[in-house]
Amino acid sequence: MLKGRLGLETSRIPHADRHGLLWLSRGKLSVNDGTLQFLASGSGELAAGRYDIPYQDVSLILLGPGTEITHDVFRLCGSHGTGLVAVGEDGVRMYSAPPRGPDQSALARRQVMLWADPDSRLGVARSMYGLRLGERMPRRDIAALRGIEGARVRERYRLMAKQYGVPWDGRCYDRLNPEATDSPNMALNHAAVAVRAAAEVAVASVAAVPQLGFIHEDSSIAFALDIADLFRDDFTLPVAFQGYNHWRRDESQPLEREVRRLAGVELRRRKIIPSMIDRIKELLGADDGCDHR
Fold it and tell me: Is the pTM of this model over 0.90?
């Protein structure tokens, strides 16, 4: 099987008989005599040539930039439960709707049960806050937990900005006008989009329900936002502030491009998506087989 990207070939997806995720870019994916084939144009990761894709052994195929695809690919993959997702360079964007994913619903059912019960829902939220803040959270309602987190996050932003030598006047983000802010905040916005895309891939990979978040509520990707926030201190902030510093030394490239490039490098190097997959299973109390009765 073609070696994956972002460390995804080692991810433990809840397909008992499948082997994770596969990244393809710069080539054409088609069906030839009932076999899924990829005609690679040649890149740093894959030499030019024709490759047979073992689609029945793959949970999810990520289609990167420069990929062409025929309609027959959707028919073949759809009939065998193999997901197809369009992503940006190095996986820092997710462009397509979530696929049907693995052919088991156990983890999704587990998520729904935890989400539907107020006590267990708060318990998962407390666990998420505990992972974010590095301590056991008190048994309070979600509003109180959000208040505790808000104060800690503001201080964390300030300390991290000081550590990286980034000018910081506080977090400023207008959802209706995300461009209306200063450069450090813009760098944070770009890094947050990248880690959110990684979280969307992880949630789709395990066939969890993206709408059912334990902390976030209103978004159609609320659960992905929950997972993305778990990596804010260790990934999002360092990538944003390092990317800002690189850009400040040489502003010939757009700030967004610099942050996205660094985010892609770190996603691969640190295998963030596999870590997210394991964190989802840990929070939902799911084993590798996801066999909950």
Answer: no
